[in-house]
Structure prediction request, 111 residues.
Amino acid sequence: RSCHSSPHQDVALAIRHLASSYKSMGQIEKSIELYQEALEIQRKCSDVPLQSVSATLMNLGCCYRDSGNLKESVPLLEEAVAIERSCHSSPHQDVALAIRHLASSYKSMGQ
Prediction:
């Protein structure tokens, strides 16, 4: 943060890695907070690759799902699926991964 005065994709990436570490330690709420911050920065940056935004959306959506907040999870994962579909013209593993995460949230909702 001290190296970049405005929102920058490198800061978002570092925050995303930190969020992942917190998730690995079982600190889901802290992880959610950090993924939200990373996503906010990514949305402000025009040069962030869409697939990086998608990865943050998937990670945040999965954290919400894991915390039982399925209403927050589904829209994030739906957006990730849409981004992945727009990035890949043919069947692709990233699209399948996003769909799998979304399906898992729907399953948890009993749908």
